[in-house]
Design a protein that fits this description.
This protein has five domains: 220 residues, GHMP Kinase, N-terminal domain (Ribosomal Protein S5, domain 2, 2-Layer Sandwich); 82 residues, Arc Repressor Mutant, subunit A (Orthogonal Bundle), CATH 1.10.10; 215 residues, 2-Layer Sandwich (Ribosomal Protein S5, domain 2); 63 residues, Ribosomal Protein S8, Chain: A, domain 1 (2-Layer Sandwich); 83 residues, Nucleic acid-binding proteins (OB fold (Dihydrolipoamide Acetyltransferase, E2P)), CATH 2.40.50. 33% of the residues lie in helices and 29% in strands.
Length: 716
């Protein structure tokens, strides 16, 4: 391909495109650069594999630590398993791209985005997403694009396109909007309880810029004399589908109208119809075209039957405005909630059930040392809130090997995390590291929003002082021509048959997280706005059910949760607390059993299951860094005696001298007449001279001062 360069300017930002120089054997390749962030995106197509009956699209986002001038840690000193954030960016690219490929395409398609350089101003994710569209166009792969993605931030009262990391961190919105010529195709957002109207306005603002980027891509391919490839769908013999529809349509419709059926019962009846169909086909003559079609493709019968079932389900919703379980379009399934399900050794539990979807979330409170260190290119160094989502096979009545979390699990955990972060207490008020694990015990749609609800219950049960409870609902959509039906609280079968999965989470004040994925090539903003607004009464209804179970966070933590005491010391004293080779801090830990974490800014966090042990460790640390002042009273121990006085260690590592004249309120002839080495004495700081020497006295000490000194000493 010929080399080219193009600059796109929008919203005060520039994107530089360079092609034809790098990766010449890839189907299409483009280097996308903004600021000092540069991402190489390639798209390659190869011949399809035998027996594939789905679109085999693979999207990989790769980070290289050299992009930030860093060398990887570990023994091998090279990049290993992709960090969680890289997986999330892979999903961010995949989700708006996938619906834009012809679903009949069976060739292998791989998109690889590699961040080659990165600064702290420009996040690479939206650059990679837009670059994926350009690379596919350059590769001449069939594509209903172009597609572009932008990030929208809210700084003060102003929307900002592609904000910096700092602007995202300090703002109230982090929104990614992706769109095609047909409309918005993906939305992902975290927000600080923004009203629905503000979120809709932000999406509209972002899509306007997306249209500019789409226009720029069209201009580019025109300049390069490249046409967007739109291969016609291969002709298929309708004999099999016509036969199956004629044989099964009436029976399927009858099952779909039995609203009292549970999911297993409905599946059983639909499977029975399919079995009868298979028997009928088997009874046909060997040369019958229907039997031949089934024999030639082992998946043809099942796929065609699914397709017809899907068509009839959609038609029922469009024509009769009633769903397969008998609900109205805006009706939420029955809800039940429970907290404190597990023993108190578990710090907090919440069980949330919506229809056949059941999620149990478990909260664990940890110390600052439990924070997750982030080993990726992004500026955030650690996370104090961790949300993990597990989807075991038994949740859908299946058996399969248990594996490490996949992209779906990581994505759903990140969505729930994004929904709950805005309501967490600030670290200075609640210094715990918080981990929530959402276990999907039963799945029939909307498990990610179920994990948001269950986790809210769990946090409140654990005594985490969240500012407001969060609930969530998943919205669906059926679109045929101009006919549109928005569905509230979709179940699994409606996700399968529908055109949209739109998850909306928030408090009674506003939205905290959004995630919208499409199966069609785009939606107008009005439909998206309608879906967001329809989600609000559903969220509030769910929230009401949750608050009926637990309305405020518990005031007491689990007796097995660590007790944390946080305080600050002079950063210059950190070394003194740690001691040579960590001797002092190790000694404190061994003496008290408490765990001590010290941040670079001098913030000390002491944790222990027993509050008294934490207080003891705090007292020992304070003793090490303590700077005495005149008038302070201590319990000390005589360390040595000289003719003119006695030296007393009143704090660990700190000594002062009592002059013989200050030992008693009468004349003392000999120091040993009053004190000896090892004696415990009550002393007051008389003065600290110009050379930093501490002069002590035993005179003029009030009994209350002495009592307070003894109490403080008892903790050390």
């Amino acid at each position: 391909m010929q080399e080219f360069e193009k600059t796109i300017s929008f919203g005060g930002r520039d994107i530089h495109l360079k092609g034809g120089l790098l990766a010449p054997q890839a189907g299409g390749a483009v280097l996308v650069q903004s600021g000092e962030t540069a991402v190489l995106v390639t798209a390659t197509r190869s011949a399809g594999r035998q027996g594939i009956d789905f679109l085999p699209l693979l999207v990989d986002y790769e980070e290289r630590l050299y992009a930030a001038g860093r060398i990887p840690g570990g023994f091998l000193r090279r990049e290993g398993r992709p960090p969680e954030r890289a997986t999330l960016i892979s999903r961010l690219i995949d989700r708006p791209m996938r619906p834009l490929f012809p679903q009949w395409l069976r060739d292998d398609i791989q998109i690889v985005a590699t961040t080659l350089a990165m600064d702290e101003q420009v996040p690479p994710d939206v650059l990679a997403a837009t670059g994926a569209s350009i690379a596919v166009l350059l590769a001449k792969i069939p594509f209903y694009g172009p597609m572009a993605a932008v990030r929208v931030g809210l700084v003060g009262d102003d929307f900002v396109i592609n904000p910096t990391y700092r602007e995202v961190e300090t703002g109230d919105l982090d929104l990614v909007v992706a769109g095609s010529p047909d409309g918005v195709i993906m939305v992902e957002a975290g927000a600080n309880q923004l009203p629905e109207a503000d979120v809709i306005e932000a999406i509209d603002f972002g899509y306007e810029v997306v249209q500019d980027l789409i226009k720029a891509q069209l201009e580019l391919i025109k300049d390069l004399v490249i046409e967007i490839v739109t291969e016609p769908e291969p002709e298929t013999d309708s004999t099999l589908s016509t036969f199956i529809e004629e044989k099964t349509a009436a029976a399927i419709k009858e099952v779909l109208k039995q609203f009292s059926l549970t999911k297993p019962e409905r599946d059983e009846k639909l499977d029975a119809i399919k079995d009868e169909l298979a028997a009928a086909i088997e009874a046909l003559e060997d040369d019958n075209p229907v039997k031949v079609a089934v024999a030639e493709n082992s998946k043809a019968l099942g796929n065609t039957y699914k397709s017809i079932t899907k068509k009839l389900m959609r038609q029922q919703i469009l024509d009769e405005k009633v769903r397969v379980d008998g609900r109205k379009l805006d009706e939420v399934r029955p809800i039940s909630c429970q907290v404190g399900l597990l023993p108190k050794r578990v710090h907090g539990t919440g069980l949330f059930r919506r229809g056949l979807t059941q999620v149990m979330s478990v909260t664990t409170l940890g110390t600052p040392g439990d924070a997750q260190m982030m080993d990726d290119l992004h500026p955030d160094e650690e996370k104090r809130y961790l949300h993990h989502y597990n989807f075991p096979p038994y949740s859908v009545g299946e058996t399969r090997p248990m594996r490490s979390p996949g992209r779906r699990e990581i994505g759903h955990g990140a969505l729930a995390e994004r929904a709950l972060v805005p309501v967490l207490p600030p670290q200075e008020e609640f210094p715990y590291v918080i981990r929530v694990v959402s276990e999907v015990l039963s799945s029939n749609g909307s498990t990610s929003m179920g994990s948001v609800c269950g986790s809210t219950l769990s946090l409140m049960d654990a005594g985490v002082p969240i500012t407001k409870p969060v609930s969530g609902a998943a919205m669906g959509l059926i679109k045929e021509g101009d006919e549109v039906r928005i569905l509230t609280d979709i179940q699994g079968i409606e996700d399968f048959l529908g055109d949209m999965d739109f998850k909306v989470a928030g408090t009674d004040s506003g939205i905290t997280a959004l995630q919208m994925d499409m199966k069609i090539t785009g939606l107008p903003l009005k439909v998206i706005g309608d879906a967001i607004n329809q989600a609000k009464p559903a969220r509030l209804h769910i929230l009401e059910k949750m608050l009926a179970t637990i309305d405020t966070p518990r005031t007491e933590l689990s007796p097995y949760a660590p007790r944390l005491i946080s305080f600050k010391i002079d950063p210059e004293m950190i070394g003194m607390v740690i001691g040579p080779g960590g001797k002092k801090i190790k000694g404190i830990t061994e003496q008290t059993g408490a765990k001590v974490d010290i941040a670079d800014d001098g913030t000390v966090t002491v944790s222990s299951i027993e509050g008294e042990k934490a207080l003891q460790a705090k007292a020992l640390i304070e003793a090490i860094v303590f700077k005495p002042a005149a008038g302070d009273v201590f319990v000390g121990k005589v360390t040595r005696v000289i003719p003119i006085g006695a030296f007393v260690e009143f704090m660990p590592g700190q000594e002062g001298m009592i002059h013989i004249s200050q030992l008693a309120d009468y004349r003392v002839a000999k120091v040993e007449d009053e004190v000896n080495v090892g004696d415990e004495v009550i002393v007051k700081v008389r003065e600290i001279d110009g050379r930093g020497r501490i002069n002590l006295t035993r005179l003029n000490i009030h009994p209350d001062e002495a009592a307070a000194a003894r109490e403080a000493a008892a903790l050390r």
